[in-house]
Every structure is written in structure tokens, then in C-alpha cells.
Amino acid sequence: MAAYSSPSQSTASGSPLLFDQNGTSYGSAISHTAGSGTFTINQTGLYRADFHGVVSAPSNANFPVSIVTSLTQNGSIVPGASVPHNFQNMTETSPISFSVALSVSTVPTTLQVVPVGNASLNSAFTLTVTRLGNLTP
Fold first, then answer.
1. What is the pLDDT of residue 83?
2. By CB neighbour count within 10 A (0-12 exposed, 13-18 middle, 19+ buried), where does 9 fall?
3. CA–CA dist 69, 17 (Å, integer)
4. Close Cβ partners of 122 (under 8 Å, ≥ 6 residues apart)
5. What is the 3-state secondary structure (H, E, C) of the chain?
6. What number of other Cβ atoms are within 10 A of residue 102's Cβ?
7. CA nearest 104: which of 78, 66, 86?
8. CA distance 58 to 10
9. Is 0.85 topped by the overall pTM?
10. CATH number of the domain where residue 40 is located
11. Whole-angstrom distance between the N-terminal and C-terminal Cα of the chain?
């Protein structure tokens, strides 16, 4: 399941990014409603989440500004899926990305991409969640 956002969006600290468009999807193990920030995993297994986008601080911010963009699983930050950046001025942008494996043993499980620290301006972002296989005992 892949989803992306075509327009840039301002996001308050702690609010998930909203993915307004759905891309390729196959099967029912992962679902996403266009316009929402939540991906739902409906089948246990091993998954991979790949995210990329561009983040910047709003022009009215008091610099320096610190923003950490993270993947959350059921509201908790996924280890290895956080990208911090400290902005020194309003003309600065930062490409951000992460790729992380997820073990899902309880369903439904929700995933969100959440920037924390200051408000942020986010653009050209995509999240692809892929089921890799079954969990082995």
C-alpha cells in the first residue's frame, strides 16, 4: 500500500501528516483512506515502512527550530524511524527519509508519520507499507 500528498501542508507538532492520495495497493493486509494520516495493518506479519519527503520550518517561526519526524505504531515511536533536523532560517529545507522493518503480532495495528517539536511545512511525501511475510515462532 502506498499513499502520498500532492499539496504541501502545514502540520502542528504532534499531528500526523495527511496523505491525500492513494497509490498502488494490493490485497487487504494494509488499508488507508485517502485524506487521512492513518494506515491500518489488518494481518499479522513482518512489514517494511518506507517514507520520504521534504520538511521546512514555517516562515513565522523563532529560529532555531527543531523538528523530529517519526513513524508511530499504535501511537508509540518506532525505533529507527525518526529523522531530526534543526533549522537555522526560513529558507532552509531538508529531505527526510526512513526505511524500517515492523513486526506486527496484534491487529488492527495503526501507523502514522508524526512531526514533533515545532510546527512544520511538509511537501512531496510518500509512505509505502509492504508486507514481507509471516512471523515465525
1. 97
2. middle
3. 10
4. 5, 8, 9, 10, 11, 17, 53, 54, 55, 69, 115
5. CEEECCCCEEECCCCCCCECEECCCCCCCEEECCCECCEEECCCEEEEEEEEEEEECCCCCCCCEEEEEEEEECCEEEEEEEEEEEECCCCCEEEEEEEEEEEECCCCEEEEEEEECCCEEEEEEEEEEEEEECCCC
6. 19
7. 78
8. 8
9. yes
10. 2.60.120.40
11. 26
Q: What is the pLDDT of residues 31-72, one digit of tens each?
A: 999 999 999 999 999 999 999 999 999 888 889 999 999 999
The grid coordinates listed for 69 are 519526524
Range(s) of the domain holding residue 17: 2-133
Rounded to an integer, what distance in angstroms lies between the CA atom of residue 116 and that of residue 134?
A: 32
pLDDT at position 115 is: 97
Residue with cell string 491487529: 107
Name the domain count of the chain: 1
Instruction: Give the list of residues 6+ apart from residue 63 with CB closer than 8 angstroms, or none.
Output: 57, 87, 88, 89, 90
